[in-house]
Amino acid sequence: MPIYEYRTTEKGCDYCRDSFEVRQSMGSKPFTKCPRCHSPVRRLISQFRACVIETADEAIATERKIREYEKEGRWSHAAELADKAGLEDRAKENYKKAGYNM
Ligand SMILES: [Zn+2]
Questions:
Q1: Are residues 52 and 89 both part of a single domain?
Q2: Mean pLDDT rounded to a whole number for the chain
């Protein structure tokens, strides 16, 4: 479940002045008020989003590595990596090039 961070837009209380974290399911409505002092709060950039960025970085690194293997003609390596990264079509293509019958 993603963690969202909130901070009050007004004076607030000890709880919401420095931002607080709430674990919420993806579809649930964002908080508009501090649960303690009822000051209006605003959602900050969440850890959830930061996590997605990290994953995207990893995806880019994996993509780069796959391309490297493909350039070197190491199809089975490329296929394995693509497979692990969940790139099914890419994996199949490379397995085919490696001589596997899929
Ligand atoms: Zn508060």
A1: yes
A2: 85
